[in-house]
Amino acid sequence: MKTQQFKVDNTQSRIDWEGRKVTGVHNGTINLKEGQLLLENGRLSGGSFTIDMASIRILDVTDPATNAQFAGHLASGDFFATEQYPEAFFRITAVDQDYITGDLTIKGITHPVSFSAALALHEDTLTASGKIVVDRTRYGIRFRSGNFFKNLGDTLIYNDFDLNVTFTAKALA
């Protein structure tokens, strides 16, 4: 059995997020802090990555003051409490062909998530991409959730948000 370990290249990898509310959509990026992927006999078998939650950026709000206020709110206890929880984590627990299951930890709370991924190996470079749909309420993020608050009208924020992950990783010697 041939096992290969790959280190994620942060400069060539990205996480794009998208959150929806009744009146529209917001999107942005979150930096990857570190990550690794394992292949056994050319197939993904494991891996993990660490997300720098303090790096959350909003791309669709162009007014600097509004953007800063929104970023501060995402960093607050209403959302990700980044001062107390500066990192989020994902660890692969199972791989069935291109379907990945793993443990996602946000704000110190861990739940399993599953998603389809596209993988490609070219010489010593592995690329991987997938869309992880996250129910924020499972991680204690209840701000303006219709599950916990009534009569929100057009201030309701939907529970699910997306993490669109694209990794490039290099084989370790």
UniProtKB/TrEMBL annotation:
<protein>
    <submittedName>
        <fullName>Polyisoprenoid-binding protein YceI</fullName>
    </submittedName>
</protein>
<dbReference type="InterPro" id="IPR007372">
    <property type="entry name" value="Lipid/polyisoprenoid-bd_YceI"/>
</dbReference>
<dbReference type="InterPro" id="IPR036761">
    <property type="entry name" value="TTHA0802/YceI-like_sf"/>
</dbReference>
<feature type="domain" description="Lipid/polyisoprenoid-binding YceI-like">
    <location>
        <begin position="5"/>
        <end position="170"/>
    </location>
</feature>
<dbReference type="Pfam" id="PF04264">
    <property type="entry name" value="YceI"/>
</dbReference>
